[in-house]
Structures are given as structure tokens and as C-alpha cells.
Amino acid sequence: MTHSLSRGIEHIGMTVPNHETAVRFFGDALGAEILFSLVTKSDESMGAEELGPKNGLAAGTAIVAVTMMRLRNGPNLEIFEIDYPKGQPVRGIAEFGLHHISLTVDDMEAVTKRFEDAGGTLLEGPYDLTGQEAGEGNRGRFGRTPWGLLIEFESFGSPIEYDAEARARRWFPDEG
Residue 130: pLDDT above 60? Predict the structure, then answer.
């Protein structure tokens, strides 16, 4: 059954000053397990030129590391490290701390229309998800609430891939 309401929070994204330290901390302190890393420091960074229109990443910044982690029960954690060319944090996804929530949706168009009708502003999209999240029907889109909080909408028509050593599976809200 599909409808215009979100199914719930799937992950919480946060930007941290040091990716490796934060991933280690969440593993040690909370038992969070690494599911996959979309970008590592040995990969090419994901720049604002490509991502800015989709998720608000500020010009001149880049995502240098991002890892999805699974908590035992509840939303997943997405840990970002952003490159600040002059050490100046900017407002939004490139700041330290929590910067967006992601909602799993069945009907992207209906949910984002409802969001926009309520006063939210949609960013570019919807777009096909990439990397381990790629698959038929796997789509995303960001919007901003009237006060500026980023909300990510994601729909999954296909399974996602996991790193070979991942034992846990990404949590998704039940249909309802």
C-alpha cells in the first residue's frame, strides 16, 4: 500500500570534525556497526558542484568521507566529514552536528508535493540513488523546512548492497 505520508525516519545524518574518530566512537560507545562507506578518504571527494543542487552542500566544500552505520534498534546513522577549504564551517550539510533527517517514502511525488504545499522548499530531484544504494526505483530528494532543516526523502524499489563484512542490515520503517 502506498500513500502520501512518510513511513518513518530511516537514518540520521551528522557532520563531524574527524570521520574515523566518530565512526570508532559510535561503534565503541553504542555498538553501531558499519554497513558501508560511500566515500572514504582514499577515494575522490564528492564536491559541491555535483551535490550542491541535490543536498545543499555549500560551494567550495566537498564530502571527504561518509559511512552508514546501523544501530541495534532504530534509525541508522550517516557520518560525514566535510572538507572546509579555509576552515570555515558553513550553514547546512557542511556544519558539525546533525544536519538532516531522512524519511522513507512509498510515493516520492505525493510526499514531496505535500511537503512543498506545507511550506517546504524542494531541492533538485528526484534523482537516482548511487553506489550501494543504486537500484531500480531507488530514488532520493532533499527539501528544506521553512526554518532551514534539511529533510531527505528516499524510496527503495530494489535492495541495496552491503559491504562483504557487514553482518547487520540497514533498518527501514515498516509499511503502514
Answer: yes
- How many domains does the chain fold into? 1
Q: Is residue 127 part of a domain?
A: yes
The reply to whether 151 falls in a domain is yes
| pLDDT tens track for 81-118 | 999 755 554 467 777 777 788 989 999 999 999 999 88
Contacts of 84 (CB under 8 A, 6+ apart): 61, 90, 94
Q: Could you give the CA distance from residue 150 to residue 152 in angstroms, rounded to a whole number?
A: 7
Residue 148, phi-psi category: left (phi > 0), alpha (psi -120 to 50), beta (remainder): left
Q: Supply the pTM of this predicted model.
A: 0.70
Distance from CA of residue 163 to its chain's centroid? 17
Dist. CA 148–CA 155, nearest whole Å: 22
**Cell digits of residue 19:** 570521520
CATH code of the domain in which 57 resides? 3.10.180.10
